[in-house]
């Protein structure tokens, strides 16, 4: 009898501890994050989400998963999150977000950095009239303005682009870039890839036929941007990489796009709004329209090597200049 009572007594603290942990877990919002691949832009989004939510009074836990560029893995991760009973899930890049949206209909799905949410089938429209559990942040770039500026710099007869044929974002950007090139009577030379291991070979396959290389927001391609830079550098072809986050250690001429940490912070704000009671339907797809949310970079060392002059007006609009191997923030 005494032994039984002793065991019961010893079990009470353990039971209370387990109950306490369960209460903490139940009070916290369990968030699953599915990221397409690890590269500076997507890693920055993930970090921005975590850092922003850490500044709030919300209690959250994270289960961070990496698809390693595989769509089948994105589907498996979505199923895992379903089995784990997540309260909210986040898809960083299109395939993970699509997989989550297909698996989950009863909890909020937040997307981060989706160029074309409508084309990706994540939203029914941009009017917020359809009932949905999906919402988030778009990283649609000002492609026309980007290419017009690039054309004014290098005056090309032909432009090369590598894109991922299985990614809705990559295809959408390719089609838009092709259309703009046709309007400006610039020959458009595209190379399709299915995974990051093919990026360098794709660059090599077109580099002798182009006067410039344009890399749009395409997660699989950007994850191997250093190999594109290497090919362009050896061939003396100017590179325009629209992902500034991955441009610091490559030989680009021009880089113009989002600071993806900011995209992560904005995605975190969407998560906060949902946890505090707002419906995904009323949030919808959020686009950035403020020019200050974009960054323009020039690599003056590479410009000099290529014999390309950048006029003072363009330089005055730059946020970052690379000169003598050093990164310099431009004062405004």
UniProtKB/TrEMBL annotation:
Gene3D superfamilies: 3.40.50.2300
One Pfam short name: ABC_sub_bind
Source organism (scientific name): Sphaerochaeta pleomorpha (strain ATCC BAA-1885 / DSM 22778 / Grapes)
Keyword entries, A-Z: Signal
The keyword Cell cycle is assigned to this record: no
Keyword Signal: yes
Protein name: ABC-type uncharacterized transport system, periplasmic component
Segment forming the signal sequence: 1-18
